[in-house]
Specification:
Organism (chain B): Nocardioides imazamoxiresistens
Subcellular location (chain B): Cell membrane
Strand order of the largest sheet of chain C: 1-2
Low-confidence stretches of chain C: 1-26
Bound molecules: adenosine-5'-triphosphate, magnesium ion
Largest sheet of chain A: 6 strands, parallel
CATH class of chain C: Mainly Alpha
Number of strands of chain A: 14
Mean pLDDT of chain C: 82
Strand content of chain C: under 5%
Chains: A alpha/beta, B mainly alpha, C mainly alpha, D alpha/beta
Shape of chain A: elongated
Radius of gyration of chain C: 21 Å
InterPro entries (chain B): ABC_transp_permease (IPR001851)
Radius of gyration of chain A: 20 Å
Membrane topology (chain B): Multi-pass membrane protein
Helix content of chain A: 25-40%
Number of helices of chain C: 15
Mean pLDDT of chain A: 85
Number of helices of chain A: 9
CATH topology of chain C: ABC transporter involved in vitamin B12 uptake, BtuC
Structural class of chain A: alpha/beta
Pfam families (chain B): BPD_transp_2
Distance between the termini of chain A: 44 Å
Low-confidence stretches of chain A: 1-14
Oligomer: heterotetramer
Largest sheet of chain C: 2 strands, antiparallel
Order of helices and strands of chain A: EHEHEHEEHEHEHEHEHEHEEEE
Number of domains of chain C: 1
Structural class of chain C: mainly alpha
Helix content of chain C: over 70%
Number of strands of chain C: 2
Strand order of the largest sheet of chain A: 2-1-3-4-5-13
Shape of chain C: globular
Largest interface: B-D, 44 and 66 residues
Chain lengths: ~325, ~375, ~350, ~525
Amino acid sequence: GGGDGDGDGGGGNGSSSITFLPKNLGNPYFDASSTGGERAAEEFGGSFEEVGPTNATPDAQVPFINTAAQQGVGALVVSANDPTALGDALEEARDAGVKVVTFDSDVDPEYRDVFVNQASPEGIAESQIDIIAEQIGEEGEIAILSAAANATNQNTWIELMEEYAAETYPDIEIVETTYGDDDDQTSFDKTAALLQSHPDLKGIVSPTTVGIAAAARYLSTSQYKGQVALTGLGTPNQMREFVEDGTVTAFALWNPEELGYLAAYAAHALVEGDITGEEGDTFEAGDLGEYTVGADGEILLGDPTVFNADNIGDFDF
Amino acid sequence: MSALKPTPATAGSGGPSGSGGDARSERIYAAYARPAWQRWLFTRETAVIALLVGVLVWANVEVPNFDGPLTLYYLFLDLMPILLIALPMTLIIITGEIDLSVASTVVLTSAMTGVLCIDLGWSFGAAALAAIALGAVAGAFNGFLVGYVGLPSLAVTIGTLALYRGIAVGLLGTEAKTGFPDEWTDRVKERIGESSYPQVLIVFGVLAVLFVLLLHFSSFGRGVYEIGLNDEAARFSGVDVARTKLLLFVLAGAVSGLAGVYYTLRYDLARGDSASGLELQVIAAVLLGGVSIFGGRGALHGVVAGVLLIGVITSAMRLQGETENVTTIVIGLLLVASVVTPSLLAWASGRLPSRGRGKSGPGRSDPA
Amino acid sequence: MSATLTRPQAGPGRGAAVRGVLAGAVRSREIAVAVVLILVVVAATLRNDSFVFSSDGWRDLLLTPSILLLLAAGQMLVIITRSVDLSVGSTMALTAYLTGRLFIDQPGIPIPVVVLAGIALGAVLGVVNGVLVAYAGVPALVITLGTMYIYRGIMLTWAGSDRITADQMPREFLALGTQQVLTIPVLTILAVAVVAVVGYYLHTARSGRELYAIGSDPAAARLYGLKVPTRVLTAFVLCGALAGLAGVLHAARYGSVTSSVGNGIELQAVGAAVIGGVAIFGGSGSVWGAAIGAVLLVTINRALPILGIPEFWQRAVVGALILGAVVLDRVLALRRARRLDEEREH
Amino acid sequence: MSDPLKKSAPVLEMADVRKSFGPVAALRSGTLSVTAGSIHALVGENGAGKSTLVKIVAGVHRRDAGTLRFEGADVDFSSTAESKAAGIAVIYQEPTLFPDLSVTENIFMGRQPLGRGRRIDRAAMLAETRAIFERLGVDIDPRRPALGLSIADQQIIEIAKAISLDARLLIMDEPTAALSGVEVERLFAVARSLRDEGRGLVFISHRFEEVFDLCDTVTVMRDGAYVATTPIASTTPDAVVEMMVGREIGDLFPKQETEVGDIVLKVDGLRSAGTFRDVSFEVRSGEIVALAGLVGAGRSEIARAVFGVDAYDSGQVTMAGKPVRPGKPRAAIAAGMAFVPEDRRRQGLVVDNSVAHNVASVIRTRLSRLGLLTTASENKAVGPWAGRLEVKTNALDMPATTMSGGNQQKVVIAKWLATSPKLLIIDEPTRGIDVGTKSEVHRLLSDLAAQGLAILMISSELPEVLGMADRVLVVREGEITAELARAEATPESVMKAATAGREALAPELPDVLMKEVSA
Ligand SMILES: Nc1ncnc2c1ncn2[C@@H]1O[C@H](COP(=O)(O)OP(=O)(O)OP(=O)(O)O)[C@@H](O)[C@H]1O
Ligand SMILES: Nc1ncnc2c1ncn2[C@@H]1O[C@H](COP(=O)(O)OP(=O)(O)OP(=O)(O)O)[C@@H](O)[C@H]1O
Ligand SMILES: [Mg+2]
Ligand SMILES: [Mg+2]
C-alpha cells in the first residue's frame, strides 16, 4: 500500500466487531446461525458482518480470513471447511489481534480460541442411529448421504455412527456412504442413485440439512416413499411438509440460530476479555444463560432436539 | 557458391533516422514509423497498466485498511497460482489455442504430491519434482492431441479438464492429505526481508523473466506469434508448428504442476475440490491483459497487469465488505468491455468519416 | 445435415461410392454414441434390473437427462455457427430463481406465465450475448465467459442468501417435475419435443440450413449474401431461451433453487454436443447427436456406481469419453480423406 | 470510347468506377457496358483489376467513386444478397463453397425451393440440381458434401449455382481455368443458350482462343483502368494483347545466358496418393527449370512436397548429394532450399507482421545471440535486404498488410534470399504483380541464376515459362509428361504435353507473344 489517506479508516475497528464466516453462503442452516449471531450482536451492541464463499471449500475461505485480519475485526466466527487448511490463516489473524471462535465444524484446537459445539459428536451419531434403527426394526441395509467428502464434522459423525451401529445393532448394515457436496441437485441425484444401486435399502441417514431435504424431496415422489426410512439432521421449516406427508417420521437438530447466538456471545466474551478460552471460564450468553468453557476450549450448546409430527409445529427456523 | 550479397549498403545499418549521406542510391529504412513514446503509449498494455495504477490509487485513498501492511502480502499469495499459470497460458492463447485443463492439472499434481509425500513417505522435494513432471506429462498429452493429431484445443482440454480432476478425485476419495513438512509450508509464506512481499514472488519473478525472454526476445517467441497470426505461413517459413504447440502445452502443464505444489503448501492440503474455476480466472486475466483470443497479439507485461488488476479489485472490494457477486460482475464487465471497446472504437471511427454509407461494408474480418 | 447425407440410395456416377463412405461416417457418429448408450444401459440393467425395470428407475432414466438435453440442444445451435455459449449455466440459474420469485411474489400466478417468463428472460440474456458476438464482432468465447460471470453475479446479488424451497412453489408446478404420461415423464416429453422442433427447424427451414452454412465457412456465407449477424443472433437467442426453459424445469424437478444452480453445467453442455458429434468449429453435427450425447453423459454418471465403479471416478470417465469422441471424429475424417485420395487415384 | 453496340439495351453500365484497398489502387477507372443478349469478354493482365470490378458489381466491395447502373437504374449494392435479388449472378475466381454441406445445398443455399408450410422442398431441390447437372453434362452426385471435390468440380458447382439463379446478368471470372476441354465446351453451349434467351454475360479469361470462340465484344483493362471496347469480329488476338500489355514488353523477360553447374536438387520417384506420382527431375546451379502445366495439374503440390511442407508417400529428395528429411521444412531450409509459395497472403507472409519480422523470419535463429533475439538486430539484418529489392515502405515496422502485392512479393523474396539459399523454388513468381514489377522480378531471377543459384520456377503464364526457363518440365495430372530444353519449348509443345489425352482446344497463342518469347 501507498502512504496516504487513512483518516480513521485504517485504525481500530471497534472492539466487538464480529465477522461470521460460514462454510458457504446461500445455505439455510448458516442463514439461521447468522440470524442468531446478528441478534446477539444487537443485544450487546457490537457490529456484525457475514462474509463467505459460494463454494464450500477451504481455499475459498482463506481470503476472507485474511481480509478479517487486515480489517482488524474484533472476532472471527468460523465454520471450517477443513480442520488444518485454515490453520495458518487463522493463526495469522490471531497474531493480528483477532479472536477466533469456531462453530459447527471445528479446526484443530491450536488454531482457535474456543469452539462452540452444537452437541457432542457421540450424541449426534447415536441419536441418528437410534432413530433409524427404531424405524426399520433394527435390521436391514442403510446408507449415509453426507455433505462434501472432506467435511470434518460429517466424517467424524459417520465414523462414530458406523462404530455405534456395529456395536449396538449387529443386524444393521451400512452399505454405502455417498456425498452430495451440500449441493441440492447433487444430493437429489445421489439419493436416486442410492435407491437404484441398493434395491433392499431400508433406510437413509443424512447428517446434513441440505442432504436430508433433497433426499426427502426425492423420496416423497418416489415408489419407495414410506418403504425407505429417512432421518438425519434437518431444519423443521425445510422438513415440515415431508413429516406431514409421511416421508419422514423423525429427525434431529439443534437450533442453529441458538448456535450462532451462542457463538457470537462467546466471541464477545473473548473480545471483552471475560474469557480466554481456558477450561472453567464462564460467561453470560443473553437469553441462553450462563455457559462454561470445557476441555480443549469447547463450549457445548446442549442436546439436539428430535422433531416429529407431534412437536414440529412448535418450531420456526 | 551462391554469392548473394545484400548489396552495397551493408554498412548503412537500420538506424532509426537515416543519415541520408550514404553514397549510393540505396535506400535506408527507418526502423519505426512512429516515435518511441507513441509506440509505448497507445497500446492495450499501457491502458491496462494505467487502469491498474488508477485502481490502486483509488483503493489506497478510499478503501479502509487497503494501505495496511498485509494487503499486498495476501494479494500476492492469493494471486500466485493465477500469476504463474497466466505465463504459459499467454503463449498458448497467442498461438490461437486455449488450455482449459490447467486448474485440473493443479489439483491432479496437488493430489499426487499428497499421495507421494504423505502416503508413500517420499521426501517433499522429491514428491514436488514428481508432481511437476506429472504436470508436464499431462500437458504433453494435451499438446500431442492438439499439435500432432490436430484436434481443436477447446474440445481436447474440456475433455482433460474432466479427466485430470477426475483422476485426482478418484485418487483421493474422501481423504484430504494434510500434514506436509512445516519447513516447506512455512517457506511458502515467508516474506522478503521486512517487506510485505512474499518470497514466492521471487520464483514468479524468475519465471516471468524467462517467459518474457522466451516470448519477446527469442526466435521461438517470434514463431509463437506467427503461428497465431497465420500458422500456414509459419509452417512455410520453417516454424515447426506442432512441436511449438506441444512445447507450450508441456510448459503449461509443468507450471500448473508448480502451482499445484504451491497450492498444496499454501493450504497444507491436497483435496479434490481445490482450485475450482481457476482456469477461467486465468483466461479472463490473460484476455483482460490484452491478448487476443484469435491469437497473434498480446504481451506479457499486459497480462501481469491484467492479473494484478483482477487481484486488486477483488481485494479492495472484499475489504469494502462487498460480496463476491459484485466482484464477479465487475470482472465480467471489465472483460466484456475490454474486448468490445476496440471494436466499438473501430466501428465508430470507420463510420464517422464515411458518413451516409449505410451499413458497414462487407469486407470485415471474420468473427469467431 | 445428416439427413441430406444419410440416404445412401442409388445415385448416378462415380460419386456414389464416395458418398456411401461419407454417409456411413456421418451416420455412424450418432449411431456409435447411441450404441454406447445402449450398452451402458444394458450393462447397468444386467447388474441391477431396477435400473430400467422399476418405476423409479425407468422414470429417472428418462427424467434426469432432460435438463442437460435442453442445454445441449441450445449449445449445439450456437456451436454449428462456429460460436460457443459459456453463459448457459448462469442463465439457467437466473431463470430458475426468477421462477421461484414469481411464485412467491405473485401468489396464484398461472404456471404457463411463469414458464414463458423464464423462457423470455433466457432469450433476453441470449440477445445480449448475440448482439455482442454478431454485431460487435467479438469472439463468442470471451463474451460469454464475461457474461457467465456477470449473469451469475446478478443472480447472487438478486438472490442474496435466500433460497427458494419446495414449499414456496405451488404443488402443481412441482408435480411437473415428476408427472408421467404413459410412464414417460412430462419433462422428458417436453425436452424431446423441443429437440424434435429444433431438429425439424434445422432440417427444413432456410434459416436453419444457413446456420450450418455460416459455421462451415463464414467468409463464403457473407459472399453468398446470407444475413450472418442476424442468424448468429438468432442462434444465441434460441440457446438463451432453451437455457431459460431449462432453468424453469430445474426449479420444478429439484424443487429448490440455490446459488449453485447450473454451476459448471456449461462445460457439460459443450461436452455433450462434442460427444454427440457436433464439430466444435461449426458446420456439422445434428441436434439428435447432441441430445444422445447429453443422455449418455448423464446416464453414464448414474450407471457407474451400479457397475461398481466408485463415484469418485465418474468425472474421469466422463473426460475420457469426451476425448474418445473427439479422437474418433478425427480418425473417421482421416479415413474419409484417405478414401477420397484413393478414389482419385483409381 | 464510343459504344459500338447501341442496338440493344445495356444491362450493366459502369463508368469511372474507382476502388482502393488502403494504399493499393486496385481499380482506377473501371468502365464496362454489357448489352442484353451478348457475351462480353473482359481481359487484362493479372492484377489489372478485373476481379475487383466484378466484386463491385456483385456487392462484395463498395466502390469509392463512379457510376454503376443495372438495367437502366442507378444501383449501389451493399451486399451480395442485394445484387442477387436484383438479378445478377457471379461465378467468383476462387470457388467459395460450404465444405460440410451437400452439393445441392451449396447450389441453393439461402433460396431453397419451399414447399408447404415454408419447408424446404428437398425433392424439388434435388430434381432441379439434377436438371442443371444434366444441362451441364456433369456427373457429380448432388447429395455428396462439397468437402473433397476437385477444383474443377468445385468450379462446376459454382457455375451450376449461377445458372440456377436465372439471372439477367451472369458474370464468370475465369470459370474455365480448371476445366477440361469437354467441360469447357459444355459450359460454352450453356452460355450461348443463355445469351440467346436475351441475358447479358461477362466472361473473364486469360485464354484468347476461348475469348474469340465465345464472345462477341471485348473490353480490355490495364493497371486498373479501362483501355478499350471493341467487337470481337473487328479485332485480332494480337491487337488485344497489344492493348493489354501496353508498354515496352521487349524487356519483360531479360534472360541472361548462364553457366550451368553441378546438380543441386535431385528428386527421385516422388509419389503422393491422389496428387502426383513418378516425379523425378534435377535442377543444377545456375539453371532456371520451369514446371509448366494447367492449373490443378499438381505442380504446387510437387513443390510443397519437395520443400517438406507436405508429406509424400514414397520417393526421395536430395540436395547437393545429401538426402533431405521428408515433411520438415526446417530440414529443407538447412539443406539450402528456399520456397516462395503461390499464395502470398496466406503462405508467403504473415501479413499482419511487420516487414522486419517477415524478412527476418527464416534467418532469425542465426541472428540470435545466446538464444536471445532483439528487434534491433533484426532491423539491422533486414534493412540491406529490403534495400536490395527496393521494397517500398515507410519504416521496417509497418505491417505487410499495407503494402501492394508486388511489394509483398519483394518482401517474400527478400526473406528467402537472406538465407543465402542454394536452391530457390518460386511458385507463380509474378501472380497479381504489375508489369513494371514483373520485369524487375524477372531480372532478379535472371541475375540470381547468373550468380549460380539453382531456380525451380512454377508458372501458369506460358510466356513467363518460355521466356525465363532453361528447361521446361510439363506436368499433367500429377505426372511429368515432357522435359523440354529451352530450344524445344514452344507454346505448342508445352501445351500439347500439358493437355494430351484431354480434349483440349487447340492452344493458339497470339503471334505477338510468340515473337516476343522467342526473342
Ligand atoms: N482485398 C484486397 N486488399 C488489397 N489489395 C487487393 C485486394 N483485392 C485485390 N487487391 C489488389 O488489387 C489489384 C487488382 O486485383 P484483381 O484481383 O482485381 O486483379 P485481376 O485482374 O482479377 O487479376 P487476375 O487475372 O490475377 O485474377 C491487385 O494488385 C491486387 O493485389
Ligand atoms: N480442395 C481440393 N480438394 C481436392 N483436390 C484438390 C483440391 N485442391 C486441389 N486439388 C487437387 O490437387 C491437384 C493440384 O492442385 P493445384 O491447383 O494446387 O495445382 P497446381 O498445378 O499447383 O495449380 P496452380 O497453377 O494453381 O498452382 C489437382 O489434382 C487438384 O484436383
Ligand atoms: Mg481475378
Ligand atoms: Mg499452384
